Amino acid sequence: MEKKIIAPTTKMNVGAPHGGAGETEAKIWLRQSERRSSVNIKERKGELILIGYNLIAAFFPIVANYSGKLMPPILFAALSNLLAAFVTIIYLAARGQAHRVWEKKTLPLLLGVSIFIIAIPSALIFWGAHQTSGINTSLFLQMELPFTLIIYALFFHEVLTARKYFGAMLIGLGSVAILYNGSLHFNWGDLAIIASTIFFPLGNWYAKRAIEMTTGVVVVCARNLYGGVLLLIMSFFIEPGADLQQNFTQHFWMIALYGIVIMGLAKQIWYAGLKYLSVSKAISIHTSQSALSLVYAMIFLREIPTLYQWMGLTVIMGGLFAMTYRGKTPAPLVEPK
To answer: What are the C-alpha distances in Å from 216 to residues 101, 117, 274?
Structure first.
């Protein structure tokens, strides 16, 4: 009796990408697995880049707090950004790309980054850090995450789940514990730092679109240049009588540390990682800086956290975990930009 040979079953998968008639389910599954693996590799690359960024950027609240003891805080922020812009624009000029900093097609986006990430937040943060501790500065900056998720849900239609609402509530409660710190007397510096984090989501929205049209180096240079000019104008009005030349020469080392390393090198690392991740995911990784900054504050500023600061940190970290934990859900089959 002759045996019948049964051919492998085929299936027309109309909705699947590359899945035409006659393509086996095994091939479709293999192609989707390859795509998912490619996305996961790019996500992991972005995550590792941003972890490196965190190690450097965690010094930001420490420098912000310490610099206010040396010179007018807004002037410090202005000179640091302008120094970073000067170094970066030399690099761009050597590559024949300096003109890209003021190209018409990207200028509105670059101005948006400069206003909402540099000018307004820096003025609030550096003034506020001068009025409070380095620990409070680092912890209150974590309010950026709930503000990011809420603003993106309201205006950019990102999904905000019940778990993320719960995480945002925990971060808010942790911030209240730190604000209270044993008394009902609120520090205006603390409130200024919290207010500054409202503007970062808008700035990151502009930055995400800007790096799709230009390079990360151009974005960093433009935001430092335009933001530095705006901060310098603010300083002339808010800090009258500040000697620009004397402050620059006397405290150049601190200005260079913040301007070139933290605002220049670290931010280029940030934009390199942002290419592979969504803004919400990038900010989620970014928020792990609070623990590093707390350690840095204890080492370099000799600050000892109070009971309420420890409680606030614990609750905030719980909120961050609740908002960013994704479990074992596989990555979506969408190419990161």
So the answer is: 11, 15, 9
